[in-house]
Amino acid sequence: MNAPMTAGYNFAYLDEQTKRMIRRAILKAIAIPGYQVPFASREMPMPYGWGTGGVQVTAAVIGEHDVLKVIDQGSDDTTNAVSIRKFFARTAGVATTTSTADATVIQTRHRIPEAPLTEDQILVYQVPIPEPLRFLEPRETETRTMHALEEYGLMHVKLYEDIARHGHIATTYAYPVKVNGRYLMDASPTPKFDNPKMHLSPALQLFGAGREKRIYALPPYTQVVSLDFEDHPFEVNRFDKPCALCAAHGVYLDEVVLDDRGGRMFVCSDTDFCETRRAEGHRGEMLADTPADGGAA
Amino acid sequence: MYVAVKGGERAIDNAHRLLDHARRGDPAVPEITPAQIDEQLALAVDRVMAEGSLYDRDLAALAIKQSRGDLIEAIFLVRAFRTTLPRFGASEPVDSGAMRIERRVSATYKDLPGGQVLGPTFDYTHRLVDFALAAGVSPPEPATAGQGEAIDAPHVTGLLDDEGLIEVNPGAQADHPVGDLTREPLEFPAGRDLRLQNLARGDEGFLLALGYSTQRGFGRTHPFVGEIRFGEVEVAFTPEELGFPVSLGRVALTECEMVTQFAGTAEVAPQFTRGYGLVFGQSERKAMSMALVDRALRTREFGEDVVAPAQDEEFVLSHSDNVQATGFVEHLKLPHYVDFQAELGLVRQLRREHAERAAAKASDAAAHREAAE
Fold first, then answer.
1. B115 plus B248 within the same structural domain
2. What is the pLDDT of residues A109-124, one digit of tens each?
3. Where are the beta strands (DSSP E) in chain A?
4. Active-site residue list of A
5. Are B30 and B116 in the same domain?
6. Chain B residues within 8 A of A45 when measuring between CB atoms
7. B158 belongs to a structural domain
8. Structurally, how many domains does chain B consist of?
9. What is the ipTM of this complex?
């Protein structure tokens, strides 16, 4: 134990009854991949929309020997990731890390780590709107029926209309996937770049939506197929240049505005991946221009 | 930049320290105490208890102090505390008919058993700023009724009930315990018990606007205030090991019973219908709005068409909770830059393709002109 637990609260904040309730929902979600299981989401000491679903799932699955990593936008140092990591360090006293390889539980918002995950890891997603059909049909009563009947024509029509209007499918994140050949699932607002990482992943993937009171899951090695058409196959976002700091290709990059004269640099969104590569000696074209310790920019 | 940099942890700690400092304000001004908030900003405490759905004046007053007077933030603090409390059971239903009435008015009868009791109210005050209050004044002693006897005031709707003029309130069903949306996820269609629980916890402003919309024609219900009453009621609990109810204390409640649009068919004689509002503390605005929306949400029950927002159960119940709403609206200030990057990439690509098409069209047109010359 590297940190004291907060007096008056149970391990990982939630009481054991609540954890059991959440675990039952998780087990059901694992049994029916991609199906949204309603659960009695609790009020958490952080705001709805800021990861309360992910936090509840993490609290329900984490044990005292787990090692937790929390990322937001791929980074361990974004404000909300720091806040959630501190929350578990304080309420569960678990070890935390920024290293993807060392973590046993990774809670994430908007990204999947670049380094491949293993069977010994759980990836917990924070989900704002779990219903992939929500923006096509706002009513829960309707969308639940559509899922029951596997009636997903509306989504294909939407993607087709994108192509008719723009020449491309204009969905770049929260790109819909079909899970295990049955349920249409919201990939949470990760860029579609990350969708292929969900497919046949060895890690257990759990999705928690606190405000909407839903949990869904991808058991290890589940088929996850991004929707597309034969003549418009699914494509991931591409970048023209490698990371300016670690020279990595084929990773997701953030655009950093350098000045008001159009200066831009592109750097890894996954900060741990980038730091690991730099430690291994990879050098991007702009590495010399930034502090060697990756410190305050 | 507030995210891309290292050192987020220290920045957060410093921001919170600054918040503590800002909360205190000018140290030359005496610090406010929760007791002062409880006594002198009592209606704010009422609102925080009602929407925080926890009856604890001290805690609500402290939450208001901690939140610098931001009531939704205070409600959030109370909710996050409430969720950690153990449940040892449900109380007996409270009897609002036996309320120790401080205020009770009816808009449907000029006089009635128990009388019209105005109590402490802003109604009929002239909204002139009282500059004397800034200096602090001792108010004159309140007038008293004399005998100090408890007022026996039967429910107005009970009087209508005796004549069969209003629909009968369903009684408690032993085989159907009252639902609790904080323990079970809300599913649609929701029963009236869950709808009322949702509205009682719902945002006052949201319910006010919805209730108002029904008055302006978006789902009219022809409401009359049968009665509004405010006062304390006793809360009793039956512990399993005792088997008889024991009193836990009293809570202050505002109750509103609306008498609304009558319904009837060839088979059933016409009767007025009901809308019901019940709120912790004193808030007639909230209780009345709740009663209007409760009735609007019963549209389907009376075989009417759902045409207005206030009648739409999914719309109302999914958006009434201000802790949920403020969290999700305000989460937009969290970083979204990986998603924005994806959109940026697409828009740039679409613009490039658009420019290429335009250029191709222009060169085609130029070639045509040359050929024609």
1. yes
2. 999 999 999 999 999 9
3. 37-38, 67-72, 95-96, 105-109, 122-126, 177-179, 183-185, 204-209, 214-218, 224-226, 253-257, 264-268
4. 34, 243, 246, 268, 274
5. no
6. 80
7. yes
8. 2
9. 0.81
